Automatic annotation (TrEMBL), chain A:
This is ABC transporter ATP-binding protein. It comes from Mucilaginibacter limnophilus. The keyword Nucleotide-binding applies. Pfam families: ABC_tran (PF00005). It comes from the Bacteria.
From TrEMBL, chain B:
In the C-terminal section; belongs to the OsmX family. In the N-terminal section; belongs to the binding-protein-dependent transport system permease family. It holds the Pfam family OpuAC. It comes from Mucilaginibacter limnophilus. This is ABC transporter permease subunit. Residues 23-202 form the ABC transmembrane type-1 domain. PANTHER family: GLYCINE BETAINE/L-PROLINE TRANSPORT SYSTEM PERMEASE PROTEIN PROW, OSMOPROTECTANT IMPORT PERMEASE PROTEIN OSMW. The chain crosses the membrane at residues 27-49, 61-83, 89-115, 135-163, 183-203, 215-233. GO terms for cellular component: ATP-binding cassette (ABC) transporter complex.
Length: 315, 522
């Protein structure tokens, strides 16, 4: 869907982005992760030509993005900003309708689509006539997302979309975004400096440092097959939690004892170890029943889970 | 002519036609220049917000324009644009530029960068970003700039009357020259009201709901255009010749009022400052002007004085007038000042004026040369015996006289001197003397009689045929009323006079004011 080939951007003597190559598949959420100044935002903004590269090419859907005018290109790419970037002189409704107006949709179509998104994003229609400064940070971010999604662009770019929110709101919106069907169909490129967020939301993650893409892959690859010390150091502090989150029950299914006990709690094999651990530590059950790999269910206790995880790590 | 004290309201009622036309001219001047300033300043402000490296240069240039004194700026305009509305509008628009450019720039660069980025990322073109996001968001700041510019323009537009562009300044400066408080207020109060009203209206627009600014934006240029067009209503009349009179001359019985009542002169008249009047006549911008019979520019610009065959211009013999306090404080002052008595005739004064006004020699040098020539010059003495304060009005002849007196006092006494030259018109100079801000200044008998004493018409008529009667009358009255003493006259008679270009007067066969009236009535 998106192909980035040897992309570089120099600001004077500073090499902000250096020879980055990437391929992002359709429907995938790709997270660019790194500290500030690593070049992740610059890379993102080159995708919709807010920044023009010094060298390198970008293809979206097989088409070089320089083949069309930036305005036309951007109307087919959703964009969500850290500080929401809502127009303070437009109401919520007008903000959401910016792109459809540029695309010359009729009023009825805009209204229907707006109400559809409001419902999905848990916004009430009472907010439509308010100005953005009357909304909470979380609501502003939801409106920002609605604005990016309204024309149903196949590609969505998100620049630290939750960066300006407090931890509680952030966790809540993160969970909502994750379950939003509108987002599941889209090819998403997201920039963040938050490792948790990257592992939570990313199908694949690319870690950048000093303008270079150091390693990219699925979360488990980054954890268990780091390309170099930089990657393992970068993930070091939160390693245990990240590992438990990125390993799925299905990954260690084979090491589970082949028994079934009736249990009050059932989990899906696609869930993470972290999820199972949370159930055990909350004291809801002694053992849990894992279902959904197509075959029969299996039951495990906390001890069995931990030893299975230990085996997995040492493989 | 009403001889009782008029109230301000009486005056305004009596002059309501003039007041209205001046106010319309004033509004028109303000808004024509404002409109052009917005047309120039807004794009320029946007340009420098896009190219920040230009902002320093553009803003300092506009800032420098702002610091040029208004009168000087009007003066610079005359050689290029002549007199009348054109130079006034250009000068006003130059003053209005800085606040408009500055505020547009500040407003546009002050917009949250993420909002601009979002606008671009949504797929807006540069023009759409400007129209839909940058201008609406910067609008309150831009309007604040327009508001500042409007208030500045209403104020500066009062000076437009110096160069025959009309406006409420005609009353203000006429009133100052004529010592007529009602006339000053009749101009100043409406001018202040205009400033307040426009400021208030624009402040309302500024605070308006952001949404409605959009419609306001569309309506504003139309309103400004409508207000601007007001300027052209009053000047929709004309005559064969155009006269340019000073604000002082306009309101005087021995000026335009007398010309109309005694001669029945009907001529299209503009109000103009005397500093530019002669040149405007020479350049054929004006045909008839009100001048002074000893003015040096008379010869320089080849003008002739029309004969005052009905004697409406009273004698204007110059003499120093001194406060009694000063005569007591400086016992040698009277005899020193009287050294000049009878020494300067009309032709000498015209010659001296010619040297300063036309040859642009410094008044000090002209004064010193003259004193040496007549053998009165003495080098300065110690200057330790107290400071004598000399005043002068704001024209060449008075500067020369002030410098002559300065040298005489320093050469013949031990007093020091401080000169306060350029004290505007008669009213400012006389008030300074009456309030002990200065010790003496040269005044003219006719001015004393009419502008200061405001003698009734009958008295004026009975006195003006004889120069001694006039002098004695003002001498007695000034001492009685103000404790101010008229010393011996200097000799010359700088009377008002109507002047025309020599060539035109010959062509039309006009030698006197009566002949001019007959020509115009034809």
């Amino acid at each position: 869907m998106i192909k980035v080939d040897r992309l570089s951007k120099h600001f004077g003597a500073i090499q902000a982005v250096n020879e980055v190559s990437l391929e992002i598949n359709e429907g995938e959420t790709f997270v660019l992760l790194g500290t500030s100044g690593c070049g992740k935002t610059t890379t993102l903004k080159m995708l919709n030509r807010l920044i023009e590269p010094t060298s390198g090419t970008i293809f979206i859907n097989g088409r070089n993005i320089n083949d069309q005018s930036p305005e036309i290109l951007r109307r087919s790419i959703g964009y969500v900003l850290q500080n929401n970037g809502l127009f303070p002189h437009y109401t919520v409704a007008e903000n959401i309708a910016v792109v459809p107006r540029l695309l010359k949709w009729d009023d009825k179509k805009i209204r229907n689509r707006t109400y559809e998104l409001l419902e999905k994003l848990h916004l009430s229609s009472g907010e439509l006539n308010k100005y953005p400064n009357k909304l909470s940070g979380g609501q502003q971010q939801r409106v920002g997302l609605a604005r990016a999604l309204i024309a149903d662009p196949p590609v969505l770019l998100m620049d630290e979309p939750l960066g300006a929110l407090d931890n509680v709101t952030r966790a809540k919106i993160q969970a909502e975004f994750k379950n939003l069907d509108e987002l599941k169909r889209k090819t998403i490129v997201m920039v963040t400096h938050d490792i948790q967020e990257a592992f939570e939301l990313g199908d694949r993650i690319g870690i950048m440092d000093k303008g270079v893409l150091v390693q990219e892959g699925v979360p488990a690859d980054l954890l268990f097959k780091p390309a170099n010390n930089f990657i393992s150091d970068f993930l070091h502090e939160q390693r245990l939690q990240l590992e438990l989150q990125s390993v799925k029950l299905a990954d260690i299914w084979d090491t589970f004892p082949n028994v079934v006990q009736q249990s009050s709690v059932t989990v899906n094999a696609k869930d993470s170890l972290w999820h199972a651990m949370e159930i055990f530590t909350s004291g809801k059950a002694e053992s849990i029943q894992v279902t959904g790999t197509g075959v029969a269910s299996r039951s495990i206790t906390l001890e069995q889970l931990m030893s299975a995880y230990k085996n997995y790590r040492h493989e | 002519m009403n001889e009782q004290r008029q109230t301000l309201l009486d005056f305004m009622r009596e002059q309501s036609d003039k007041l209205l036309s001046q106010a319309l001219e004033h509004i028109g001047l303000t808004f024509i220049s404002l409109l052009i300033a917005v047309i120039i300043g807004l794009p320029l402000g946007i340009l420098i917000a896009r190219r920040r490296n230009l902002s320093g240069t553009v803003l300092s240039l506009a800032g420098i324009l702002q610091t040029i004194p208004s009168i000087a700026l009007l003066g610079f305009m005359i050689p290029v644009l002549g007199i009348g509305p054109k130079p006034a509008i250009v000068a006003l628009l130059l003053y209005a530029l800085l606040p408009i450019i500055q505020n547009t720039y500040t407003g546009v660069i002050g917009i949250d960068a993420s909002v601009k980025e979002a606008a671009l990322a949504m797929g807006m073109s540069r023009w759409q970003v400007l129209k839909k996001v940058e201008l609406p968001l910067a609008m309150p700041v831009i309007l604040a700039g327009v508001r500042t510019a409007t208030v500045i323009n209403v104020g500066v537009a009062t000076l437009a009357s110096y160069i025959a562009a009309g406006g409420l300044g005609e009353f203000i400066f006429g009133g100052i020259s004529l010592n007529n408080t009602n006339m000053i207020l009749a101009g100043a109060i409406p001018a202040a009201l205009l400033a307040l009203v426009f400021d208030f209206l624009l402040s309302r627009l500024q605070k308006y709901n952001l949404k409605k600014v959009k419609t306001g934006l569309a309506v504003l240029p139309l309103v400004v255009l409508a207000l601007a067009s007001l300027y052209f209503i009053p000047s929709a009349y004309g005559s064969k010749l155009t006269a340019g009179f000073t604000p002082e001359f306009m309101g005087r019985q021995d000026g335009n009022l007398g010309l109309r009542s005694k001669y029945g002169l009907k001529i299209h008249t503009v109000v103009i400052n005397d500093a530019v009047m002669y040149k405007a006549a020479y350049e054929k911008k004006l045909d008839v002007i009100s001048g002074y019979s000893t003015d040096g520019r008379l010869t320089a610009y080849d003008l002739i004085v029309l004969d005052d065959d009905k004697h409406i211009f009273p004698p204007y013999y110059a003499a120093p007038i001194v406060s009694e306090q000063a005569l007591v404080k400086f016992p040698e002052l009277e005899q020193t000042l009287n050294l000049l008595a009878g020494k300067i005739t009309d032709s000498i004064m015209t010659e001296l004026n010619y040297r300063t006004d036309y040859l642009h020699q410094a008044p000090e040098k002209v004064a010193e040369d003259f004193l040496k020539q007549v053998g009165l010059y003495k080098p300065a003495r110690s200057g330790t015996g107290g400071i004598v304060r000399i005043g002068s009005k704001i024209f060449g002849e008075q500067y020369i006289l002030a410098h002559i007196y300065n040298m005489l006092i320093k050469g013949y006494t031990d007093y020091g001197v401080s000169t306060k030259t350029g004290l505007g018109g008669t009213k400012i100079c006389f008030d300074a003397l009456a309030n002990n801000q200065i010790d003496f200044y040269p005044e003219y008998t006719g001015t004393g009689l009419i502008a200061i004493l405001q003698a009734p018409v009958k008295t004026v008529n009975s006195l003006t045929s004889d120069k001694n009667k006039t002098y004695n009358f003002v001498k007695t009255e000034f001492y009685k009323r103000y404790r101010i003493k008229w010393l011996t006259p200097i000799g010359f008679n700088n009377a008002y006079a109507l002047m025309m270009r020599q060539k035109q007067a010959d062509q039309l066969g006009v030698k006197s004011i009566s002949e001019l009236t007959r020509y115009l009535d034809k």
